[in-house]
Batch of 3 targets.
Target 1
Amino acid sequence: MNAAIGRIAPCPIGAVCLPMIPFHNLRPLAERLAPQLQAASQRVLASGWYVLGPEVEAFEHAWANYLGVSHAVGVANGTDAIELALRAADIGPGDEVITVAHTAVATVCGIERAGARPVLVDIDAATYTMDPAAAAAAITPRTRAILPVHLYGQPADMTALTALADRHDLTLIEDCAQAHGARWRDRPVGTFGDLATFSFYPTKNLSAAGDAGAVVTNYAPTAQRLRQLRSYGQVNRDSSARRGVNSRLDELQAAILLAKLPYLDQHNSERRELAAEYDALLRDAVSTPHVAADARHVYHLYVVRSPERDRLRDELARQGIGTLVHYPLPAHLQPAYADLGYESGSLPVTELAAREILSLPLYIGLSPGQLETVATAVRSTLAEALP
């Protein structure tokens, strides 16, 4: 996703122009942290060491310490993180992995790249995360893992899902790509499963300047296997113990992440403040995000819901306000995954949500005036639909 400027000149006829209030704008945060980011970049460039060096090691230690886990292993991106987490757990061909269809297709892609079969289940209507009852109903003799997604910054019900995995002796892997710093019962997400995966894509709450990811675990043998898998299965430069891939976190991205990490909690607090302002302005107009009682949401996305979603999105676009839908076509209905055998109507809660949800602008640097403009446009548009 390209970063868009916050304000532009009038758009000439026939030109392609950016919205006055973009859905996402990466510049304010980059400008705020410019001294730290420039120092990190210059340190790497001056070092002459660009892949799997001291910056990666330092970030891995810092990220593990932040979460309170024993090991973090940097990888190239969040999709690789899912694949390598499954492979490190010896899950592959012939195995089934339960996850949700209401997620970025990267979740399903990572499972298939590990050779396993994704089994897609429905979501809780309020939180948009995995329905534990649906996951329980999907378990078969071939099930090896449950892979919940902490979506939009909202944790899944880790109390129920941990108990379910324990009861059936299944590996639990958390997809935390949208939930850096989120907590369930005052524990960070990523600390409940046998493994957890993270993406640090530029739009994430903790973001790199390109693709980056990590897998975390409390098990030393698993961490050792992950370090081998990310670099051709090598135990040293000339010996591969297993078949691996090339999924190495580079020094520049690690240094940028290391520079941003001390500010993550502050930035998440700012996101919650923006979300609270939206809640106050919009609760009588649309369905605003529900936060589970045991959850601490970090608002990677601010997702509202309305039966008038399409008309609302069109009108906001006409007024120069950027929006996105996360996600308009669930994974089980994507053409790429037609061979999984799901039909329209098979996951009704997911499918209804996909028709009604809309992500509004929320990012570090969104001004109170911009937020009020968005909220006013939402309210006025939907008020027109009232009798």
Target 2
Amino acid sequence: MSTPSRPMADHPGAAITPVGNPMLAGLGPSAWADRPDVPDRTLEGMPKIRPLRTAPGYSLESRDPDPRGMTVIGADGVAAGVCREAWVNTSEPTLVYLEIELTGGARPVLIPVGFVQIDARRRTLRVNAILARQFADAPVTREPDTITLLEEDKVAAYYAGGYLYATPNRSEPIV
């Protein structure tokens, strides 16, 4: 695990709570499987999931909104950056990730498309899982044009964990 944890009580079997950034802890909704740290490959040996810039012959459906150039907005309503690329699964032609250039020049991060609400009219991409400032801590890929199976799980776990851990009130009881 990237972030240590501690028991919430002094008895055996007590629940544990993450220390530090809980979305990197690998606990609860931010847990991931320790999959191989290699890209999933096509039968031809190419990485299955790639940015469009490295996938000749692949494009976005012309009738769908193109997210590239759209502003990314966090759950707090603050702009986090701009979508600069779309990543596709070349074996099952689907859009899988959006690559975001963060405001302030931090390294680009990926967002699984399942966590994004596209508003073509406003040219925005809303990500309700995390706050704008939390994009800077999202896991990144080792290589700029490929993602490994382990990296896929860690990226998805980070955003999933945000639904519980992004703000203190999300982890409190509703009642």
Target 3
Amino acid sequence: MTERQDDSRGRIIICGGSMAGLFAGLLLRRQGWRVDIFERSGEELASRGAGLVTHRELYEALSRCGIHLDRSLGVEVPGRITLQQDGSLLGTRPLVQIMTSWDRLYRLLREALPRECYHSGELVCGFEQSDTGVTVFLSGGDSERADLLIGADGFRSGLRAQLLPEVAPAYAGYVAWRGLVEEEALSQVCSQDFVTWFGFCLPEHEQMLGYLVAGVGDDLRPGHRRYNWVWYRPAEATSALADLLTDAEGRVHEMAIPPDQVRGEILSRLRADARRVLSSQFNEVVRLTERPFFQPIYDLECPRLVFGRVLLMGDAAFVGRPHVGMGVTKAAADALALADAMEAAGHDHRAALPTWEADRLSYGRAVVKRGRELGAELEAGAAAESPPEVSAQARAADLMSTIGVGLARVA
């Protein structure tokens, strides 16, 4: 697919300038559409270095966006290891993967899109549509006319709230603590073999995992990278989660709390728990992380994705739990499927969108379902409802075979 420099197809406005919006914008622009992306944030987006597992669909989407791929995309791991609490090896599984970061992918996509197509600090407040097009209203008071409007504005989507006010993210019963550590700060014991693998540690009804990603400035040189870790922990909604979301002034934040407002005693408890239940290697990375932060885990499913000339994609449409490893890949796959559907329908959106919607509803539901299966043991109350019957070795083997591998292994 070669890039066109005209806008003979018409105009598409995209609400949201993160992964789904960028992938859709790049792919549709290469088909000849005039594309404008409006992003509410006035600053360059960042995810505090969150790590990502790559998949085939992600590589295909990047390639079709015209982005050259090489070894600089991320850090290759030879496989997975699980550690016991005493730091000894519980199990291994060979599985070569490239581990990258959200920030690295975001920069690649932004650099591929002409600056004039990306409008920062512009919030899409509403829209009106007719048989001839859609009018998009912006926070600054201006309005824009387009043939299609794509809602790619994340799991708190303002467009989804207008289209499907009854649909909201559902808390899953646990949170993901996250952090990054400079590779050079790790002790020799921790850095020798441990960090070169995709590592796991599995306290009862919890999951800790980690792997290397690029360092500052996308530096992939050994010793200059960063170790990315994620620790899934149950947190009952009305007590434990509410406490986590309460800042030092007593304010309870809705759905998430800024990292710099997490109370000091919460972080102290986290480090104490790390000493108590994690392997020495993972305890070290938690201890060395200056300010860990957490994200409550949510599920989200939309019953529809197409509303005339308006459609939802990415996290605005479906949010699956991170264990599937499909967040960014799903966004890329949504955009690929839309571009393919438009091409197959001769760029007639009336013919293309129903086909695209049916495909993405099936795909999104499968991602959410798989995430629930992989995260069921982490939910608050899971210990009382279903006492573990499997051995530590069997649990480790199962998780090393399923976490972060996408939907390929789902029967």
